[in-house]
Amino acid sequence: MAACTLGELARLVGGRVVGDDSICIEGVATLANATPRQISFLANPRYQKQLQETRAAAVILSESELSHCRVNALVTDKPYISYARIAALFVPALTEKSGIHPAACVSADATIHETAWIGPNCSVEAGVTIGANCRLGPGCFIGENSTIGENCLLVGNVSICHGVRIGCRNIIHPGVVIGSDGFGFANEQGQWLKVPQLGGVVTGNDVEIGANTTIDRGALDDTVIEDGVKLDNQIQIAHNVRIGAHTAIAGCVGISGSTRVGCRCAIAGGVGIAGHLDIADDVTITAMSLVVKSISKSGAYSSGIPVEQNRLWNRRLVHFRRLDEMASRLKSVEQKLGTIIRKQED
Amino acid sequence: MAACTLGELARLVGGRVVGDDSICIEGVATLANATPRQISFLANPRYQKQLQETRAAAVILSESELSHCRVNALVTDKPYISYARIAALFVPALTEKSGIHPAACVSADATIHETAWIGPNCSVEAGVTIGANCRLGPGCFIGENSTIGENCLLVGNVSICHGVRIGCRNIIHPGVVIGSDGFGFANEQGQWLKVPQLGGVVTGNDVEIGANTTIDRGALDDTVIEDGVKLDNQIQIAHNVRIGAHTAIAGCVGISGSTRVGCRCAIAGGVGIAGHLDIADDVTITAMSLVVKSISKSGAYSSGIPVEQNRLWNRRLVHFRRLDEMASRLKSVEQKLGTIIRKQED
Amino acid sequence: MAACTLGELARLVGGRVVGDDSICIEGVATLANATPRQISFLANPRYQKQLQETRAAAVILSESELSHCRVNALVTDKPYISYARIAALFVPALTEKSGIHPAACVSADATIHETAWIGPNCSVEAGVTIGANCRLGPGCFIGENSTIGENCLLVGNVSICHGVRIGCRNIIHPGVVIGSDGFGFANEQGQWLKVPQLGGVVTGNDVEIGANTTIDRGALDDTVIEDGVKLDNQIQIAHNVRIGAHTAIAGCVGISGSTRVGCRCAIAGGVGIAGHLDIADDVTITAMSLVVKSISKSGAYSSGIPVEQNRLWNRRLVHFRRLDEMASRLKSVEQKLGTIIRKQED
Prior knowledge:
The structure is a homotrimer. By secondary structure, chain A is an alpha/beta fold.
């Protein structure tokens, strides 16, 4: 979109203009960098000072912040939601494409919807179905008998192995691998025998998968990513995992085989979750925590330890390793003290 | 394979049928989901209850579980090994291919065995040798003078840089990078001077490498992955590392430069190992542990801390940071107590 | 380069030959593996024993190590820097290429310098500019309106999304993704609404980015990697992060959104840094540490805990979880002791 008025934006998000509703908005920007032709937003109180100095044409904010605003305001109950909807109008339009690029290799046995775009250097194998309005950027490969639902975006260099079913409106970023073999081996006299990985991967609708995230196929049943799940970059999801609807997982998380994560969970960066566990709905796990037992109750869980100056930290470690000795000494002190007190009471 | 009898499967794995050995088996499935035309297995006692309810045609199990089985049984000493061998019969056959796809770019100076398959959008550079029965899926690139041994599978979008030697029967999943430059820089007055990475990478036979795992080339000597090593997804192996034969490494592990890991080790997910260390044979390291010194003795090692409820955890951290103070207070208590006791003894 | 004399190498690095300066050097190697036609180096005292046994033609070393050397020596103040410069002479020459490979797809609206090389199966979209002497290996894609500065090397299978600006002399290894969407979602009644990611990514000059590292585009402003930054493999850099000049980051590090890392920092493997933080210049963070607050002072910071034998470690955890109880018991002991002492003093 080239531009629209502040009044039009307010109607779009059900908000109220304080100031000039005819002012023309040509884009979105941060409070610090907005020009007098851009709209900005305040959703995090830490940026209140910037609100007072912004040159933006207008600012999306809540009623309670209105008094700090010296430019036009678009007042709404949920400024960040309203901002997201307005920003979507200003996403730069990339070239619209449909059809099959001449440098794509598409099997004669694949079914490509006429509105879909298969980019250059893509490989689409036999038995694949690509739904309406899908966009496959350069270098994607879709293995045999996989299905991509309607309105999916595979940005480029995405690998979908055979027998994977992707839902509708999935956004899959570069380097993602879906349907690679799970890590299944049986130990036979010190050597590893491969256990065939015969399941698939199923994703629901409105799933987003960040760059270089990997999702292994199931050993027998499928690995399942339910509706509305959002996965950040560099996440590893092992075979037979199930991620519940609307759960969000930040970067560098690893989830081991056959674990089930509930709905609406929030898992922070670098968390590790062991295999064969059940994590309840509405669980939050903070950064770099380790989960080795099932969690049956919603709430926040942690085991990450924040840094300290090296010298201090080394002293902590020394004490930590002496806890055994400290416990014994404390017990000994208690016993001696008990003896003294008993004597005094005699 | 379309189907075979239970008796035929028992002969294949050296097991014994209890029940109808003429029953027809058309596939493998979990106890919970098997149909009366599929065989299942029991290897983990936690699924014993499912054994009693399964609708499977037959179940692979050990003698000790036989009494719980209400359907046909295939009794063997090692049910999981037997299952792995039987499941291999039912891997769905993907289209068989050989030759060079017209959309592959293969240097005139590369040597491709006539039984090998080079998929679409692959690039095979000068001096490369690809062995018999290799299958390169779409989008792989093989850099100059690299060698791929017989019977390797590169699933797709695999990057093998120049001068890498891959053994026989390797399975390499999408997004794997082998032979990228090691992280070598010399600091010259606050800036980083690149140290050329002149070694290669050598993998043994029967190595499997999971999706998006990276293995850097050596600085001078080679990085070496020995026979039978199994690497899961998203692992980082730095320059000049050597991984001993039949070691298995789970996802998201990072191993720093010049470290040697022994044979038959088991390294769980998210472990970090510092550089220039020696890890003995038969070492197990549990999830998210940090190794900063060499380990000379086989056995299990840990430093991962499991999560607790956030409120509890924060209290733990407070106490942890007061350990120094607690140690002083304990010492002071001991001294005062000593004084009192000495007085009493006088 | 085929070969040169030791004297020529000494002049190149401003060093002094002790021994035969006419000896012919054909390559570089480690002390342990060097042949009598190769030069080696000693930069780490732990290899001093190998110095005494080396068969190398010559060794690059500092004055203080000269007495241990039994072969020709090239004496310099900074042996590792000198080695790096000399090794650069012996990098094996890969085939020189320029132009556009016939199997590359280059938009008519892209500007490719005549000295650049666009390899097979690359996709270069509309509005892209590729600078002089750039080399794009196989399978790279460069999204709309992105810019690659002069003398960059993209090894292969690199994904650069739209609107990214890469500086000069960047080296980008396979599997790298730059400009993927940041992880930005607004929660609306339990579901996630995508927040458009409208910023870009800018890298300075002389940046190196390791295999499978990911750098997300900014939400509104750009994600910025300043001059001379060196990133190892499998690093995740979230949206709106800024990495200061000449900072080096080891493998498997994750940096959350909007965090700023200073100049000349050294961040070890597996570190996690939370979002919206400021890390000062010249900060070192040791392996697998977690940073959740800003760091305003240069120096070294840690929170990684090294492994111990499993049995010992489990005991540590038991004591750790009893710290609360120990603190109470210590307090109780102190009170009772105080009572006794006060009585005695009466």
